[in-house]
Design a protein that fits this description.
Elements lengths: L3 E2 L1 E3 L2 E3 L3 E7 L2 E11 L2 H20 L2 H17 L1 H12 L3 H18 L9 E4 L5 E9 L2 E5 L7 H12 L3 E5 L5 H13 L7 E3 L4 H14 L4 E5 L2 H13 L5 E3 L4 E5 L5 H13 L9 E7 L3 H14 L17 H11 L7 E2 L27 E4 L6 H4 L6 E7 L2 H9 L3 E2 L1 E5 L3 H10 L4 E4 L15 E2 L13 H4 E9 L28
Parallel strand pairs: 1-5, 8-9, 8-11, 9-10, 11-12, 13-14, 13-19, 14-17, 16-17, 19-20
Antiparallel strand pairs: 2-3, 4-5, 6-7, 7-22, 15-16, 18-21
Helix pairs in contact: 1-7, 2-4, 2-6, 3-4, 3-6, 4-5, 9-10, 13-14
Length: about 525
């Protein structure tokens, strides 16, 4: 019997909704879960429920909230293999990567469990006597969190953990094609003792979510929006929030460049480009978009890269493979559109393109029953090409050349995204010049464009986001607001900038230029 997944609001399941089947993309005939998709009113009702629960949750001392976060970490750790297997089954992510994703939740919890004792404010000196000034971090209220399914459990934890730790309630809308993984993570959070209504899971499609979010913003029951997804949808959410004077946390797409300098360790660069370009089948926001390689090493790099791609294993994500299938039918259809962007002046150096089938196998692998696609390397991409300028969510990497570092930086910035970037070089000056010139929020030196750590700020600029950051202490600025307090115990009204003691200097004083 097919497992059914429903929304959970205020600790209660909502059994109504349109049926949607979350499939196993490695075997598309296998239904992982039947999902009941809620409507817009259910989403806005969840926000009202969260607003009621948040008031009591905010009164729980922050160190106690930190202990709840610690419990979440231990529960995820104890269930790591089961959760990772579910992620692999539902979205086709190779098991080793899925296990790493689950580990990232534990790392996030381990970092934030202590922040409950470090939600520091400041004591600030006043300009007047018998008066003290203070600052406090206070929760924003209710956070509406909308996440993609390519990282169905790790990326949500970047929002959920700091938001809950800071005293907020959350309404979480995961991707419907990753609903079973999201529901499993919700159960682990709930088992840690969160009061009903503090974390609410709403399963809905995009239009219902957008309409419900608009209603909740109008009602004043959502005070922060966190969104991970495409640049196109991020713009719409940013516009919606702006109409309600809200500043969302937007983590959007990327066209992430990798610069290969003439002094680079080419084997290391190839290894990084292989993982960044084709890990998770190229379906990360930090996936490699274009390799910008120095003209003097272009041919050698491309030869080694082509061999590495040819030798890599594509197949059952439960095994030891570089990549498995695409996430879902919708992503497969979109990826096939990207393949149409290949132009006559491009050279496909990796072999066949398109879906892996019995008629177009990859070695002995026919891809039967799954959404498997050939990894593609396209040489000769040019500035202005769609393959160069736009995000291609899937297993395709472009290659172009440069002659000077200044040219490489200009090419890297040209698409207008600004999430992740990478440079391979043994010259420290080149590394720091690249860092100062690149518009990306994240820079790697001799490492791939993918691979965030839980205690560093994660986020992008330009088309990749609005400058907000996730992870580490920086994300606390998304889920808390600063409150200033002044306490005057002088017994009289002291007016700032008016009743301030003044010490008069003699600004005409000059040292004597003659000897005593």
């Amino acid at each position: 019997m097919t497992r059914e997944i429903v929304s959970v609001i205020g600790g209660k399941q909502t059994t109504n909704g349109t049926a949607y089947d979350s499939i196993n993309p490695a075997r598309v005939d296998e239904v992982v879960a039947r999902v009941r998709l809620a409507d817009a009113e259910t989403f806005s009702a969840a926000c009202r429920t969260a607003a009621e629960a948040q008031r009591e949750w905010a009164r729980v001392p922050a160190p106690v909230r930190g202990r709840v976060i610690a419990s979440i970490g231990r529960l995820v750790e104890a269930n790591a293999e089961s959760l990772a297997r579910l992620v692999t089954r539902e979205i086709g992510k190779p098991y080793a990567e899925a296990l790493g994703e689950v580990r990232e939740i534990v790392d996030t919890c381990d970092f934030f469990l202590g922040e409950g004792r470090r939600l520091y404010g400041q004591t600030v000196p006043s300009e007047m006597p018998d008066k003290n000034l203070f600052t406090f971090r206070v929760p924003v209220g209710v956070a509406a969190v909308i996440t993609a399914g390519n990282f169905p459990v790790a990326v949500p934890s970047w929002y959920l953990v700091p938001a809950l730790l800071s005293g907020n309630a959350v309404v979480w809308k995961p991707a419907e094609y990753a609903a079973a993984s999201a529901h499993a993570l919700y159960l682990l959070f709930a088992a840690a003792g969160l009061p009903d209504g503090v974390l609410n899971l709403v399963l809905a499609d995009g239009p219902a979510t957008f309409d419900g979010l608009g209603a909740a913003l109008a009602e004043g029951t959502v005070h922060k929006v966190g969104f991970t997804g495409s640049t196109e949808v991020g713009r719409r959410i940013g516009e919606l929030c702006g109409r309600h004077l809200q500043s969302p946390c937007l983590e959007l797409g990327g066209k992430n460049p990798m610069v290969v300098m003439p002094d680079a360790d080419l084997d290391l660069a190839v290894e990084g480009a292989l993982f960044a370009g084709f890990g998770t089948a190229g379906q990360r926001c930090t996936s490699l978009g274009t390799v910008i390689v120095h003209e003097s090493v272009h041919d050698e790099f491309l030869s080694r890269y082509t061999r590495a791609v040819a030798d890599a294993t594509v197949g059952d994500p439960a095994g030891d493979v570089l990549c498995g299938p695409l996430l879902d039918h919708r992503f497969a259809s979109r990826y096939e559109e990207y393949l149409d962007w290949i132009q006559p002046h491009h050279t496909v150096v990796s072999g066949p393109t398109g879906r892996i089938t019995g008629g177009s196998p990859r070695g002995d692998f026919s891809g039967d029953g799954g959404l498997y696609y050939h990894p593609v390397v396209v040489d000769g991409v040019r500035p202005g090409d769609r393959l160069f300028m736009e995000e291609t969510f899937g297993p395709i990497v472009g290659v172009t050349t440069f002659s000077t570092l200044e040219e490489a930086v200009e090419l890297a910035n040209l698409p207008g995204y600004g999430l992740s970037s990478s440079i391979y070089t043994t010259d420290p000056k080149a590394a720091f010049r690249f860092r100062s010139g690149i518009g990306a929020g994240m820079v790697s030196v001799n490492n791939s464009t993918s691979g965030a750590e839980a205690h560093l700020p994660f986020g992008g600029n330009g088309k990749s986001g609005n400058g907000s950051r996730q992870s580490g202490v920086w994300v606390l600025d998304q889920f808390t607001r600063w409150q200033a307090m002044n306490w005057d115990y002088s017994g009289k009204l002291q007016k700032a900038q008016m009743d301030v003691a003044e010490i008069i200097p003699d600004l005409d004083f000059r040292l004597s230029t003659t000897r005593d």
